């Protein structure tokens, strides 16, 4: 332990409790690159205009674990940094695009990926 560890630090304000719904919504917003619900709600609370979370419009996501090759992970990282889109959102976009292709186009993509 050094002397710098003994310095008195400013007391931080106690953290406010966050509801489970706000926590989940923040995770979804993070995936979409959108601002935090918690910080917006704190601003609303200070202005007195807090309306609460619209639970009917909240999308429901499930956590999923997939195995990807190192090459796929590298490509995904590169795409995410270039497009400034979260990796989970990119995967959802790719799934959507693949599902909208014809069976012939899908088979063609699968054949190309099987060669790699």
Give a structural overview:
This protein is mostly helical and 116 residues long. The protein has a domain at 87-115. It is built from five helices and no strands. The longest helix has 14 residues, at 70-83. The protein is elongated, with a radius of gyration of 21 Å.
Task: List the keywords.
55% helix, 5 helices, 116 residues, mainly alpha, Replication protein RepA
Number of helices: 5
Amino-to-carboxy terminus distance: 53 Å
Percent of sequence in beta strands: under 5%
- The succession of helices and strands, N to C, reads HHHHH
Could you say which overall geometry the principal axes of the C-alpha atoms support? elongated
Count of beta strands: 0
* Gyration radius, rounded: 21 Å
Protein name: Replication protein RepA
Organism: Shewanella canadensis
Secondary-structure map:
Elements (H helix, E strand, L loop, with lengths): L19 H13 L4 H11 L22 H14 L3 H13 L3 H13 L1
Quick take:
This is Replication protein RepA. The protein has 116 residues and is an all-alpha fold.
């Amino acid at each position: 332990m050094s002397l710098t560890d003994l310095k008195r630090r400013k007391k931080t304000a106690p953290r406010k409790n966050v509801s489970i719904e706000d926590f989940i919504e923040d995770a979804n917003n993070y995936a979409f690159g959108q601002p935090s619900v918690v910080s917006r709600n704190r601003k609303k609370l200070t202005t007195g205009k807090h309306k609460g979370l619209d639970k009917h419009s909240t999308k429901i996501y499930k956590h999923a674990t997939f195995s990807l090759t190192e090459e796929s992970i590298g490509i995904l990282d590169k795409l995410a940094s270039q497009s400034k889109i979260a990796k989970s959102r990119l995967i959802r976009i790719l799934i959507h695009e693949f599902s909208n292709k014809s069976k012939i186009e899908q088979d063609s993509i699968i054949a190309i990926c099987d060669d790699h």
